[in-house]
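Sample entry (179 residues):
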Amino acid sequence: HDTMHASTYPIVLKKLELRPDDCYLDVACGGGKLIAEALKTVDRAAGLDHSSAAVEAARESYASEIAEGRLDVREGDAGEMPWEEGTFDAVSIANAMHIIDDPRPLLREAFRVLKPAGRFVLITQAKEPIEGPLWAPLRRGMALYTDAELTDMLTNVGFTQVEANATSDTGQPGYGIKA
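Predicted structure, serialized as tokens:
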């Protein structure tokens, strides 16, 4: 998974257009590799994951960034994020939305913790073209969406300038701005 997941990081970071003064949050951060890439640009970042093992791994790997006050990694529920409203300039969720049964609480929380004009990017697996009987074993248990469904979810939360475009490799980036 690391190689596959890491291949999506440039897509996420390019779309977020991170700046040095941004405060960035990676939801479902795992061991923190996307955060490490973001910290090459931003001065402050945070990560959230439901797995205590992933959080511990990220804390161990990036102990110096945490000690410097540049990184905050927490264990928690993406549907109830432990940060105040308007904390972050940019928020992402990469390669995890397809394992979340109901993404609406996560999307509402991402919107809540963003500052006005904050940017949100997700990347997940697209519903198309991996529908049909040949893909059934692979996608068992995965929550997948069409571009229209993902666009509707982001718009209903309140994001503007929404984009959702499945790529030829079954990836699906989604984007929105908090007006």
